Amino acid sequence: MPPPTPEREYFLNLLDEAYDKQAWHGPNLRGSLRGVGPVLAAWRPTAARHNIWELVVHAAYWKYVVRRRLTGEKRGSFSLDGSDWILRPQAETEEAWKADLAVLATGHRLLRETVRTLAPLAFTAKAARTIQGAALHDVYHAGQIALLKRMASSH
Question: Is 33:101 a contact under the CB 8 Å cutoff?
Fold first, then answer.
């Protein structure tokens, strides 16, 4: 395993702050999901718009893509059928919601482990930009989730 470096620790902290560690900017991705159950997660502002549930699965998918880009892993190993925007919910149950939240949590853990163990020669400027993009992606969707929660509460 590569030794810790300030750069590697920076990117690990960036990923964690965007996903589940305290952030100065407000709720991160996991924080934005606090209090969301399957009914709220499935709510859509209109029929043609994504719901919170789909944002969760989309974020999980892109953690997989980033990990794959960093490692060179082949396509087709994402744990759910489909890619990018996967229609959700399949079933509006607490179990289904928790299963998809677990896909997101596992995706974050695996991405974090990939960054933590990435070979020094693989830690290129392109890899750093990709990792930073993954963190920004989480924060972007956290904001969307916060907005959808507010919209749903006014209906």
Answer: yes
